[in-house]
Amino acid sequence: MELSPVTGGMLMKTPLVLREVVEVLEGFYPPATAQSWDRVGLTTGDLDQPVRLVHYAVDPTLAVVEEARDAGADLLITHHPLLLRGVNSVATTTAKGATVTALVVADIALYTAHTNADVAWPGVCDELGRACGLTDLETLTVSEGADLGRLGDLPESISLGDLARRLSSRLPATAGGIRVSGPADAPVRRIAVLGGAGDSLFEEVRRCEADVYVTSDLRHHPALEAREEGRGGPPYLIDAGHYATEFLWLENVRSRLEKALGEIGPAGASVGHHVSTLVTDPWTFTVGAVDIDDIDHTDDSA
């Protein structure tokens, strides 16, 4: 509330509306740059509804929606889509139906920036590169006309084990931890990164002569074949987990959106922002994992 300069009475500030926020987000992450199979943009919400609090998360799980609702959020921004594949019912008998219902009942808009945030500059891959210690980044490859993945060099070589430890200290902790393929004492400097699932880009990683590839969701056969092609040498592999490799992007989009909305005026500056720390990685614990301190550092069987 503020006083009218004319009457001295109380004036109600006009809140920012969803349409204005979506316009900014689509400037950051144009929907047209998403992969053809992806589903991005607004999932629930009215473009004319007010936005006073924005909540950020990797996944639109029921727990995340409940957290956003309890916080009083008007908009939930997630990296992963809720409705990536077609559904024929949003009844609460299914998890997706219950999530859609919870969003609508709580009047929470859901906006997704997925592969369009992966390829954006800056985007998901830039944050993962920075977590590795990279500063000057370039495109790893081009997919459907957009830049996918990043490539860069560390100021100086470090060991593969030290790189894994660095990532462990900068990424959120998950039950799966960080999996590494290669000798812990192997020197690495040139690093390729891709947030999320990345075993489709092994050929591109080899082509750019990266020492190590940091990504996630590496399946047994593609990873094994990639290591066989390397004859035990580079590129070594670091699987840091899907959720963890994409989490750092949340703070990046939060800070960018907060700054951009503030430039709109008082209504934008009054919008609150909160990054969820709920771990939505699906795994909860491991048994019998081999730690770096338990292996022979000259052994390439990690």
From TrEMBL:
A Pfam match: DUF34_NIF3
Tagged with keyword Lipid biosynthesis: no
Record key words, sorted: Metal-binding
InterPro entries xrefs: DUF34/NIF3, DUF34/NIF3_sf
Keyword Phosphoprotein among UniProt keywords: no
Residue intervals passing through the bilayer: none
PANTHER family reported in the protein's UniProt record: GTP CYCLOHYDROLASE 1 TYPE 2 HOMOLOG, NGG1 INTERACTING FACTOR 3
Family: Belongs to the GTP cyclohydrolase I type 2/NIF3 family.
Quaternary data: Homohexamer.
Protein name: GTP cyclohydrolase 1 type 2 homolog
Taxonomic classification: Bacteria, Bacillati, Actinomycetota, Actinomycetes, Micrococcales
